[in-house]
Amino acid sequence: RISKEQRILERDIDRNLAIELRQIDMGQKVGQADISQRLVIGLADEDRKISMELKMKQTDLATKEHLEATALKNVADVNAVTALRVGEAEREKEIAIIGAEREAKPMERLAEAILAQAKAKAEGQMKMIEAKNVTEQRILVQQAILQLIETAPQIVERMMKPVEKIESIRILNMGDQASPGLGKSSMGKLATNLMDTGAVMPMVKEFLKFADINADDLAKKASEYLSGLIKVEKQK
User: Fold this and answer.
1) Is the pTM for the entire model greater than 0.85?
2) Would 9 be classed as within a structural domain?
């Protein structure tokens, strides 16, 4: 009887052990399945995250490349527009310079002509002024000489004061020895010689030369005056 009960107990134990083993096995399988599922889900999440990050990086890279390409394109466009505007400005500048030169050349020629005319006019006026000044100076000197001639009798009379003390005058007429006495030419030479002895004659000669007055005419008038003086003295 003990053996029977022992066998029954052993069967129960074996049955319970089998049940527990099955349960443990089922639990392990369920746990492994859960772990596998979680691992798959985790790996899928990681893959998804990695994929998303890669996509984001690719998107960022594409965006960056797009922005860089856009920036380069904008720079190229700006450079092209700048070059175009600079070229247009240079052409406009050249056109303006050519136009200004075309307009300036006639003005320059006109200015040169006006300047030459003004210079010629100024030179002409200067020459006229110089000639007028010289003429006025000559006129003034001529007037002074004429006044001197008008007052010549008084001047000659004063100059002849020393001659009054001379008792006799010997005149050697080398040009005309056969002519006796004193002629007009002799009197002219006498007047000239007498006037040459005066201290005032160098200045008078310069005046005569500057005023274009013939010294012979002046000497002639002086000789006529001296002839008159000599006649008066003889009558006395």
Assistant:
1) no
2) no
